[in-house]
């Protein structure tokens, strides 16, 4: 009767052993960033954004039929900022984002 106890004790070790495969795939949800596309910007700002940006989008004046405005949209978690494409600091910020692997996606 000692065998079933040892078998039960070894079962968690087997799960642990097989879960040690490819570390990048051990928890696929941590490797996937899900970004929700923002709705249209109705106004833009030249004010700088001092937060770490998660995603970047480009809204063209032809993107949405109900709002005809060009903007760069920066998102942080669930917040979004609409930036004027002519903002003097924008090009430098876009280069920094690209160095982090964040590229603006056209909506």
TrEMBL record:
Domain Chemokine interleukin-8-like span(s) in chain numbering: 37-97
InterPro entries with a match to the protein in the record: Chemokine_IL8-like_dom, Interleukin_8-like_sf
Keywords: Cytokine, Signal
One Gene Ontology CC term in the entry: extracellular space
Signal peptide stretch: 1-21
Gene3D superfamilies per UniProt: 2.40.50.40
Highest taxon above the source species: Eukaryota
Record-linked SUPFAM superfamilies: Interleukin 8-like chemokines
An annotated Gene Ontology molecular function: chemokine activity
GO biological process, any: immune response
Official protein name in the record: (Atlantic silverside) hypothetical protein
Species of provenance: Menidia menidia
């Amino acid at each position: 009767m000692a065998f079933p106890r040892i078998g039960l004790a070894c079962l968690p070790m087997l799960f642990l052993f097989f879960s040690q495969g490819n570390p990048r795939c051990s928890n696929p949800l941590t490797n996937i960033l899900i970004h929700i596309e923002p709705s249209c910007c109705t106004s833009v700002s030249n004010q700088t954004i001092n937060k770490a940006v998660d995603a970047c989008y480009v809204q063209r004046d032809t993107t949405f039929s109900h709002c005809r405005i060009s903007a760069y949209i920066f998102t942080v978690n669930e917040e979004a900022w609409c930036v004027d494409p002519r903002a003097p600091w924008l090009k430098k910020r876009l280069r920094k984002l690209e160095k982090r692997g964040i590229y603006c996606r056209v909506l």
